[in-house]
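Hey,
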Amino acid sequence: MNESVTRRKEALESLRAIPLFSRVNDVDLEDIASHLIERRFTKNSTVVEEGLPGDYMYVIREGRVKVTKASEDGREKIMNFMEAGGFFGDMALLSNEVRSASVKTLEPSRLLALSRRDFIDLLRQSPDLALAVIEELTVRLRETSEQASSLSFQGVKQRTRGLFERISRSEPAESDQRLTPALTHQQIADMIGTSRETVTRAIKQLKQEGWLAQQGKRYVIPD
């Protein structure tokens, strides 16, 4: 097998490992791969900025990002965290509107960029890709609905615990534990819709119950 064929095979295998492309047929996947542009970002880089026009969607191949919005007082409000396999920026491409949020890298990241024109053309040509996008948007809508429901019906301790479970990830060296990104009490309060003082009390209770531990600004929960 020559080198170019090997590289193409490795590229397709990498794309298929990303949930968005996992069920796309080989022919369409090769077409998608030919339109993707690889971009590398250092830690704390702004990939997309709220309020600006969107020309590209991004798939995270390596790294981790945070999705933020500016609050009324100008503070950065964290909305979500995403890692390898996730994608963002698609809504601005579908609606041709400005970015609804900013996305910044939490660590050096390698992203695959797809232009709006290519994205729309591929959706028209590939039913598998269109279905995958619809399914992913459905999952996001369900998560948004569940978060809204938790704000209405759950206590602060339950909402704090649910947030940690949602945003944490397993550490290879500690398979029985999961760690959150570095977070302040104010950031947690913004994400679950309460005050910093109330979050401080909820975290203290979770620690006393033995469910939560802390490493610097990162929180440790059981896997």
